[in-house]
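We were asked to recover a plausible sequence for a given structure. The inputs and outputs are reproduced exactly as logged, with field labels preserved.

PROBLEM: sequence recovery
POSITIONS: 171
GIVEN STRUCTURE:
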């Protein structure tokens, strides 16, 4: 089963087993639309459900169920989950409009710059607040390229696994 990471359990909240969530969704609380989460990395983890949740001080806190389906209700059990990824089955994600992409689909694509110069492979995508940013690595150098459609990113092809952009290898 293919999963897509939507966030991470970033820390404990209080003493009753609640956890802070660092969400990668937009808006951040969209992560709460998925009632069942895979908590962990790859196959080492378990399917959990959200028992309860709150928006707290511009962040999200949740109470999750343990592997047996029981609510986690103490801080030490919750702290064992800190740092784990939160993902969902890919088939749970909504279909996107033409020209829109999930960040996970951009990871691994080859990036081609000006004059067909290979720039490297997308290793990460993040938001700097103003726009999304592609992290590109060619084995020797890491570049950060703003994912701005039109003036910088001119083409994205999931079929050929290539992103074309107006970016010089010297930058």
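RECOVERED SEQUENCE:
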């Amino acid at each position: 089963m293919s999963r897509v990471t939507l966030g991470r359990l970033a820390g404990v909240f209080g003493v009753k087993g609640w956890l802070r969530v660092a969400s990668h969704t937009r808006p951040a609380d969209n992560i709460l639309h998925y009632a069942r989460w895979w908590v962990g990395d790859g196959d080492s983890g378990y399917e959990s459900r959200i028992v309860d949740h709150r928006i707290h001080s511009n962040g999200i806190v949740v109470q999750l169920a343990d592997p047996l389906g029981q609510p986690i209700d103490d801080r030490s059990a919750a702290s064992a989950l800190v740092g784990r990824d939160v993902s969902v089955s890919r088939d749970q994600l909504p279909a996107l409009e033409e020209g829109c992409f999930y960040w996970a689909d951009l990871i691994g694509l080859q990036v081609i710059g000006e004059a067909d110069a290979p720039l490297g492979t997308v290793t990460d995508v993040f938001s700097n607040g103003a726009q999304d940013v592609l992290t590109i690595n060619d084995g020797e150098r890491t570049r950060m390229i703003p994912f701005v459609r039109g003036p910088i990113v001119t083409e994205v092809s999931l079929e050929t696994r290539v992103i074309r952009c107006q970016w010089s290898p010297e930058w």
